[in-house]
Amino acid sequence: MKAPVLRYLAPRSVDEALHMLGNEENARILAGGQSLVAMLNMRFAFPDCLVDINRIPELAYIREDEAGGAIEIGAMTRQRDVEFSPLVAARLPLWREAVLHVGHRQTRNRGTVGGSLCHLDPSAEIPTVAMAMDATIVARSRRGTREIAIADFPAAYMTPAVASDEMVTAVRVPIWPRRHGHAFVEFARRHGDFAIVSCAALISLDEQGRIARASLTLGGVAVAPMRMRDAEGGLVGRAPDEETLARAAALCGRIDATADSYVPAWYRRRLAAVLARRALGQAIQRAGAHEELASS
Fold it and tell me: pTM of the full predicted structure?
């Protein structure tokens, strides 16, 4: 099929793009286009106007803030740039691991961080790791700039909490301590397919080897990535032994998972428990390795 008839606009600056969005009734932003173009061709999306922001270079960057507490990634940063960024590898290793599951090299060449966040597919890897790390979304309009906590960003299924005249310009990701453990695992029919279920885990250990901080997030099981707060609370303060991990994984297996024509809810629950146990084990192993290196 072919896309519906629409107007095409190509701003050269953020201010110009915001002016266009403010003046158009039914506009969509075109970033990488890896999802939107397919939706247009299949007539799943019917905008009257496309605002192509590929010619705005100021939206493509990866940098650490001056205080050193977060990494900020511009909305037009290509997923391939995240994959090969030394700063991301050093400071956001969970992102580096997750982005390797995003499509294929060819799609990562064009796909953007902001596009994936705004498309907000519940199976997508970038929204899942953003939720896992308590990221903040920066959105701009002619009315000003506002910051949206990632927990408040999903408004509905594949619908971000941004107004029609707003544009996501960046995501700010808090940095975990250097000696933390991380893991991202997913189950898909083939590499590059959308995940049926994914899991992102982050673990920090205290001096006694107990879990000091934990983050556990499931993707693909609900209308948006799901932080497992109860499981995280059950991990903190405990020894990272099999009983502790099994209890957290069991909580993941009791979620109210979505079902569709391909995957029943019980299967997603089963995968959630298995992948949570696997991700937590890998994260703890890596956290322990960091501690051993620090003490040697």
Answer: 0.94
